[in-house]
Structure formats: C-alpha cells, structure tokens
Amino acid sequence: MERRQLKDWLASPVHNRREEVCRLFAHIDNYLHHLRLPLDREQVYRSLYPSRVFDDLHLRQLCHYLLQSTETWLAWRNSDSTPTPSLLAEYRARGLGRLFEHSYKKAIQTLEKSTHRHPEYYWQHYLLARERYAWDSARGRLGNLNLEHQEELLQVALLGFKLRQAYLSLAPQQLSDMPVNIPMLDAVLANAATAKQQAIPMVRIYYLAIQLYRQTEEDAVFEQFSEAFRAHSHIFTTDEARDLLLLGINFGIRRINTEQGAYLRACLLLFQQGLDTELLLEDGRLNTLTYNNIAGIAIRLLELDWASTFLETYRTRLDSRDREAVYALNAARLAYTRRDYAIALQLLRTCNDLDFVHQMSARILQLKIHVDNQEIDLALNHIRNTRTYLKRQPNTGYHKENYRNILLLSEHWCKRPAYDQEKYHNWLTAVKNTHPLTERAWLLGLI
Predict the structure, then answer these.
(1) DSSP string spanning 258-315?
(2) 292-305: per-residue pLDDT in tens?
(3) Which of 31, 82, 218, 305 suits a disulfide with 110, CB 3.0-4.6 Å?
C-alpha cells in the first residue's frame, strides 16, 4: 500500500520531473520486495541506461534525488490536512474574507473533534487565535480581539511543553546518577500547582509525573497520578499515553520490588488499562516481562480467576519462541497459589530453555512446593542442584544475591533442630533483616 502511494507520488510532475527516478524506484521495489534479491550497483545502472558505461557518481545523484522525494512524501503523508494557520495567513494577506472565515471555522471544528488535549492542541488553538486577532484588528474590530484568551492559550501550551520535557528528562535519572539541569523547573512547577492549572488534566498529569521523582509523599502522589491517568489517558496521543503509562507502571514496580505491597492494586489497575486500550501491545505482541509482571501482581492480590483468564487470553500474544515455556511458568505460579502442587510440578517440567531469571523463578517455585509439602530431602537436594546452576551463571548481579539468600534461608529452615528456640529466633531475625529477599513473605509464612 505504501509503496504504491510513493510510486504515484513520484509519477506526478508536481513532485518529480525526472522519469529515470521512477524507473529507479520500480527496479528497487521489484528486487527488494518482490524478488527479494540483493541489489548490485552496476546492474541497477544497466537497467536504467542499457547502452551507457557505469557511472557511479550519476547513480549516487539519482539515489539522492529519490531519497529527497521519498522524504518529502513521508513528511506530506504525516502532515495534518486540515486548514493551518499558514493557510489562514495567506487568505488574510489576500483579503479573502469568505475563505478565511470558512477555513478558520473548519480548523476550530477539526481541533474540537479530536480527543487530544496535549500541548500541541493548545498551541494550535493559540496560533489560530493569533490569526483571528490579526484578521479582526486589521478590519478595526477592536471589540473582538480577546487578547487575554491568546495569553491563556499560550501559557497552557508552553506550560505543557515545559512539563512534558521535564518529566522525560527526569525519568532517565532513575537509571543513572547523572543529574539533568532543568532551567526554571521550580517556577514552572509553582505555576502548574495553582488551582487554575491543576484543573487542566494535561497539566495535572504532567505535574504528578514529575512529583513522583521529587517528593517524599510518594504513596499519595502515585495514587493521584494513577487516578488522573486512568480518567484522562485519551487526551494524549498513543505514543505519549504509552510513555506515561509505562512511567507509572515502572515506578510502581520499583516500589513493589522493595516490598511495598501498597502499590500492587494501583499497578494492576494501570496494567489492566494498558491491556484494555492496547497501549501495552506493540505490533500486537505483549512483552514477556510485562506478561510476567501482570500475572505475578494479580496472583499476589489473589485475583486468581482474573489471572487465569489473562494467562489464556494473552498467551498467543507472546513471542512464539518462548511462548509455551513462559505460559507454563506463570500457570504453575497460579496452580501453586491454588495449592494444586501436582499440576504446578507438571507444568514446571515443561519450562525448558528459559533465560536465567525465568529458569530461577521455576526453580524457586519448585523449592517452595517441596518445602510446603515437608519433602525435606527433595528440598535439600534441589537447593544443592540450584546452587550449582547458580554458580555457573555469569553477570547476574542483584539477582544472584537474592537467589543465594533464598536458598540459604530455605536450607537453614529445612535443617533447623525441631526444638532449638535460639536457632529458630536467629533464623527469624535473619529472614527479617536480609536484603535483597523477594521471598520474605513466603519464608515468614512457614512459621
């Protein structure tokens, strides 16, 4: 479809007056997309000029011209076809009142039909208001100038641009210690915090996104951000809505990983919104890590029926290369929570060829089943095998330390003397104070 549109574009003398450029595109299209053959520069040139000696410079010039024409087409295809302020300026300069009024009305209507209320929306409204002002003032209509309206539109647009750039600049700081200087940020935030600006959903969501990285009262801010985004995600473009959704989810996941369970419910709601709006899907696929996180949070919240439906519904949306193993691991986690240990172990036997984290998740789940069933010999043997596997894995950082702690404390539990209160209390103290330890709740539940 796109190649045909580009072909038609090149065939128009308005966009291209060199017939050989059309032939060059046709040749490239045929070889790359139909025959799926590699291109040879001399062969390409002979197809264009059968009787000429190969001229590499000439071919490069043609390729450059084709690239320029293609880029012009791409820019045109992605441009807004509605009346623009530049078109209104042309009508104004020529004194074409009826066309100006018609185009102005059409532009306003088109803007209002869109659900988007992002910075570009307010900026476009400002540009249209400025053209309206230029038209009316030139004709002496001083009562309709409405300069305050222009100022308000400009302020909201610029505030939105500044806040959006600020949260995008702050986000990478969570992954590195390199600070980013954001000029005038305190003044911008002070303005955004006023009741008038907070009443604008775009400003409020950007403001809260920034506060997630700046305030200590993160619980309240995260809840406010989640509620505001769930109510108003439609005001952003798909790409920006996805960025904001992932910002909230990643923030919540980081808090969950530090054992702050209060974030579980809000995170699940964001995930569910991302599924309902397909913001979490890329080319129809669901990322494996996202699949795991959604299932894990739903299971921890004991939303077991929903988790089961989710696992089945989005199973086919996973990458085909590890689909069945990832599904089996999460189905095993669900079966374990339901205390269907036999089913869980059967599913875990199919979890082959997984990456390190998935493989260790399967091994830890199997260990928990043995310990829960008081199969001490099986548990200790499994711990030894898992330690051997863990030693062979390079560059695992935080994960290796966490798994070592789980294995060590599980081993101590299995080997504890039945009536030795001192060792029991030492073990309990170690469970409470050891970090990192993602299975702390399970270990404490053994008591």
Answers:
(1) TT-GGGHHHHHHHHHHHHHTTTTEETTEE-HHHHHHHHHHHHHTT-HHHHHHHHHHTG
(2) 999 999 999 999 99
(3) 82
